[in-house]
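Q: Hi! First time doing this. I have a protein sequence and I read that you can turn it into a structure. Is that right? Here it is:
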Amino acid sequence: RPTVEKEPLSRGRIELSPEDLEEMRKSILSLKGVPDPDGGSADAFARGFPLDPKADSDEDEKREIDSLLQSSRHISPGDEYLNLVVELIYLEDRADQFPAIVDVLEHYHQAIVAKKDFARAATLIRTLSEIRDRFAKRDKRKSELIGSVIDLLKRKSVLADLKDSVDLTSVQDMNGLLAYLKLFGAQAAVLLADIYEQIRDPDWRGPVLGMLAEIGHEDIRALEDLIQESRPGLSQEIIRFLKEKKDLRLVNLLAKIVSYKSPVIKQAAIQALRDVSDGAADKILLGFLADDNEEIRIAALDSLTGDAAKPIIAHIKRLIAEKKFAKKSPREKKALFAVLGRSDGEEACRFLADIFSKVPFLPSPKHTELCLYAVSALEVMRHQRSLEILKKGSKRRHLKIREACLKALQSKSKIPITFTGRMPQ
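A: Yes, that's right. Below is the predicted 3D structure, encoded as structure tokens:
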């Protein structure tokens, strides 16, 4: 039984016996038409027999050849093993041998992933995909077998195991990791989300977010579940992406954020709802008006559209009529009345007129405050009746109310009233 010395092979060298060298020397001389000189020997040939002095390579060529030889001799054992396994699966035609090859591939894949050699793992899967595609037409059975191997290496549990066993935030070759995860498609979304939130190097957040955006273009549902309070930064980015994409499911998706505690995510949701011309968006914004955070409430009020429907106006009127209104800050009070002003509707005009019509017998700071906020709302209205209410208010005995109404009328006089009863936008 012949034996093979493996160690010389790993160096890219083959040791020849003197008899082998002599045979090679004679063969080359005969091909070149060079007579066998006296005293020629295998030793001389081994040292570099001059076949043709004129054909000697110059120094640059020698250095280049030496460099190529050295690089081929220093190929890593990992690359050698990968090349060997890929060649086996490419050449193997016996179906009964595939289970053994698959077992070898799976163990190899597990080993390189455990070592965080994600670049080589990605190369393995991509190479198998190329082989599968090559056999797709000429050997469908083999193509399907290779496809099953790829599915095995890309199954969802691989990502779960990876999350539990490897600290992905300390990976040195982040390019290799992202290239590997990209092969999993939407399945990798959760793992990419974890990396985005935990990664220490901010320079890699952009590429990770870019991969999530690519996943979102293919499967928007893969991003929906990533909007979580435990991921405030990423949730903001996903909401912004959905808003730019103008996905119709955005409104329903943002409805659940009303119950969140994170003000950062809530602000992002309110900002997104502001750009949605939909009555459903206004209804969700109403939910934020009950928030404990004043900034959230004001942001929601500022985001309510000018074409607010009757239920929206009715809700605003109730908030103004409640006893809690007195405890609200001036900013929030003004924001509530601003919604009435932007609505520019008949119902809002009636409500504001009622405030002016109730003149207390004695001066009331609370009533004065309501009238001044009502003036600010009437000033931005385009409805003709807003002028009538302000004219009546300009005749009030109360100095602050009278002066506020006169200033509002002066501001509105620069905008002509149209025959429809509204000032042009």
